[in-house]
Amino acid sequence: MLKGTLLSSFKLSALTVALAFPIVAQAHTSYGGTARDFGSFSSAGGSATISNQAVSGNFGWADGADADWGDAHRIRAFKLSLTDTANVQLSAQANPTATESSVGGLLPGFSIYSGLLHEAPAGADYDTAIVTTEWLANNGPVGAEGALNSLGNLTIGNDDGDLSHLTFQGYAFDGPSSVDYGAGTINGDGTVDGFVSDSFTLSAGDYTILVGGADYAAQGPAPWDAYGLEASVVISAVPEPETYGMLLIGLGLVGFAARRRLAQDRPNQGLGLNYA
Ligand SMILES: [Ca+2]
Ligand SMILES: [Ca+2]
Ligand SMILES: [Ca+2]
Fold it and tell me: What is the pLDDT of residues 198-214, one digit of tens each?
């Protein structure tokens, strides 16, 4: 009985330690518990900023924007939930003081997907999980560097043997206005200044935002610096159809007034109208 109690309390302690230090989860894709959760918003609006993050290397997002995709360990995953259709302004920027060991100089890029990665208590998704490598062998590009597809749908799985399927919504990056890393022409914001921002109209649901470095030429052997990062969202209502309706009515009135002036100036010509 005593032995059993000791064993149980040992198991409980081990479980507590495992929960307190999810070492494996941090090495793979995760939202860092709640650390990278922007939260849930409606079209009534709101905003959130997460400033204390870093990515290993300045190239992770760009490396996933080429023909052989990239390593999902080189990006940071954030999540966001919407309760109805809304406009989401997403921004990312370099933040030298993000963490104690972070450096400045990040050229940020991001992709946004509908759907979520696996979260605890499920195992974290990662590139070299058996289920991921099997999926990549059948569906990925030849010689895939990893599961990170910065320009399309993303599939990655965990040690439970389960795959996460994320549906691509769009991207933006701090880089040249037009460039091709081997997967077709892509468009950066044209001003390489450590900042990028773009807007997306998204319907109700859960979203994953992957942020990483956009400096394709920065690829090289490890170790890589931890580039400090800040990311933010501003949620607002999508303009109502009535707004466009009012605009068209306004344009119609302007046109009517112009025709009326024309008819008054030239009462017997052109339109065959006479308002005089
Ligand atoms: Ca690559
Ligand atoms: Ca590469
Ligand atoms: Ca920029």
Answer: 999 999 999 999 999 99
